[in-house]
Amino acid sequence: MPSPTVLATSRSTRIATFVGLPVGCAAVGAAVLAFRDDWLAQDWLPWWPPVELLDRFAGWLGGWGPLVFVGLGLVAGVVLALAAMDEEVSVAVTDEQVRITRGSSTRHYRAEDVREALLDAKHLVLVADNGTDLVRIKTAFPGPALAGAFREHGYAWSDGA
Questions:
Q1: DSSP string of 109-127, one letter each residue
Q2: Which of 12, 42, 131, 149 is 20 to 30 Å from 140 by CA-CA measure?
Q3: pLDDT tens digits, one per residue of 64-86
Q4: Are residues 103 and 71 in the same domain?
Q5: How far apart are CA 50 and CA 63, in angstroms?
Q6: What's the CATH code of the domain at 136?
Q7: Whole-model pTM?
């Protein structure tokens, strides 16, 4: 019996997400603090009132301003990274079943219940014998990788959606 074919986010992508998002958001926090005076000088900008509010907040913080803004950016980045991880999808295909995991939720679909699989506008779709969708889930996996995984285990793959 062939081993399962698993499509999942790579370890390097996960590391990049958990490092890149917090660092990037911390940099945005520092940039907001650093450029707020320049933005306030442009009274035609539509977001002038929120920048003025940020300026008042930064003035109230005094010397703690850079630390607070960078810290808030870092926290926002961690929250975004965790949210991104919760939206991740992994697909494991065997001859007997398809297992789809999203965040902490895992669903199993028996091979005999799946008439065909296809990719429709970045959504993996498993179609039942009666033509209804067993599952329709957004995925970042390329069509050829999904097609190869399903065909390798004997599932019908439809290229047109």
A1: EEGGG-SEEEEETTEEEEE
A2: 131
A3: 888 998 999 999 999 999 999 88
A4: no
A5: 21
A6: 3.30.720
A7: 0.74
Number of domain units in the chain: 2
Residue 76 sits in the same domain as residue 97: no
Give the domain extent around 113: 90-158
The sign of the torsion formed by the CA atoms of 145, 146, 152, 153 equals positive
- Domain end among 60, 86, 112: 86
Report if residue 131 sits inside a domain: yes
Whole-angstrom CA distances from 89 to 6, 7, 36, 57, 72 are: 11, 9, 39, 40, 28
Strands (E), 36-149: 89-93, 97-102, 105-110, 116-120, 123-127, 133-138
Are the CB atoms for 157 and 143 separated by under 8 Å? no
